[in-house]
Amino acid sequence: MLYVVAAKLKIEGYTPSTNEVSLDIDEEEKETALFSHSEKLAVAFGLITIPPTTPIRIMKNLRICSDCHTVVKLVSKAFNRKIVVRDRHRFHHFKHGSCSCMDFW
Question: Which family does it belong to (predicted)?
Fold first, then answer.
């Protein structure tokens, strides 16, 4: 499912934001590291297991990174799903490619 998500994100125009990755590795490895963030894995698992009429709910004890925020927005648009992510500070309600925080988090 991760490959399906990646393909749809590329169609939507997604490019990974690697400027938050502080590891001293090349760009391709940074993109791989970004794509394995827990939020992205949880969304892919939710797309597999949760019926389309039910929102995908994700709880996280850390703040969501800007790349994951962008990915979840695009996934909500590409797969026409409601996704709720609770991070350390607030709830993010993603629907039709937009977030309830208005990209201020």
Answer: Belongs to the PPR family. PCMP-H subfamily.
